[in-house]
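User: I've been trying to design a sequence by hand for this structure and keep getting stuck. Would you show me what you'd pick, starting by listing the structure so we're on the same page?

Assistant: Good idea, let's start from the same input. This is the structure you sent:
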């Protein structure tokens, strides 16, 4: 087993990637959204939806990195596959969720126009 294989199949690699996404997504959206409490709530909700989708993509990539053919993952009637990836993406919220909340909660300190 090479170092790359060890990194992608261990918990550390995917956990770091998920946590980094939890920091990056709200920071990028913070550049687009206006300042204020209501936009901050919408930013948080949109970030969570985007992170959920990115988590599904990340887990599909991890499965493919382990040489599992894409046809096996999405065989006809692949509802079970989508349920499986949705379930593990929701569980990945344990990694990106706290980082997302910490990132969003620090945003009002950088506001120049709106007040908390």
């Amino acid at each position: 087993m090479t170092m790359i294989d060890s990194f992608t199949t261990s918990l550390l690699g995917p956990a770091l990637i998920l946590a980094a996404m939890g920091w990056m997504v709200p920071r990028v959206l913070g550049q687009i959204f206006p300042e204020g409490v209501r936009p901050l709530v919408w930013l948080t909700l949109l970030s969570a939806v985007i992170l959920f989708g990115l988590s599904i993509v990340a887990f599909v990539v991890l499965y493919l990195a382990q040489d599992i053919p894409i046809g096996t993952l999405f065989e006809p009637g692949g509802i079970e596959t989508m349920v499986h990836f949705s379930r593990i993406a929701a569980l990945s919220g344990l990694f990106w969720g706290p980082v997302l909340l910490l990132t969003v909660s620090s945003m009002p300190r950088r506001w120049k126009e709106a007040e908390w």
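That's my pick for every position. To get oriented when you compare it with your attempt: The CA atoms of residues 89 and 101 lie 17 Å apart. DSSP finds six helices and no strands in the chain.
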